[in-house]
Here is the input.
Amino acid sequence: MAAFLKYEQNGGIVTLTMNQPETRNALTGNTAVDEFVAAARRIATDMSVRVVILTGAGPVFSSGGNVKDMRRFFDDALTPAAIREEYRNGIQRLALAVYNLEVPAIAAVNGPAIGAGCDLSCMCDIRIAADTASFAESFIRVGIIPGDGGAWLLPRIVGASRAAEMSFTGEAIDARQALDCGLVSRVVPAAELLAEANRLAERIAANPGPTLRMTKRLLREGEHSRLESLLELAAGYQALAHKTWQHREAVEAFIEKRKPVFDQPDRSAGG
Here is the structure.
């Protein structure tokens, strides 16, 4: 079977395309987990990467778990303990890899994002939806719970009440409803989705790479830290930021009333 993820880089922008439209870009029963983990590791160590776009090939963003593959859980030989370990070493590794990507991540949701596919979009920092997109926290419809972190991710984005409604009914919402509840930040015509995502990615990538990574980490830590703890971390990060060549370039450019240049080949290792 062909690789699940297509990895493309243009300057500081990496586009990850889920490329198994024949399975509706299902995230289980294939190599998706290992490929996402490998991509996250590659991005973490490549300081030239400043932003990631995640999208799907075909008409569906991701159908989430492969329902046909779930039949094997009916086998009495597969114990609850074994299934638990499968989740911990499977889809949950994907969740941690995507959520903890070192750089800002944009989900360009090109079509239905179902179950784990919906949660995958929530692992990203920003979500842009095509007008053909829809979102469903649909685990309840097949008699299971969100095993990939959706119960933690979704309420933080749309609020407790809306997340409960989506989780308890399993019903899909369309792109406009997703915009209304804050699940996505914008809705665009399907034909313009990737162009819009790239325009946003270019605006992000125009900023210093090391500072983007530290800013994302602060936002992540802020979700569960006390203010005092976050301020301590911010002080340390700020000390590092002040010593980057990108900070010096930004300050000098501001004073000289010119556009800063952050793409200097001889300094590329620093982002």
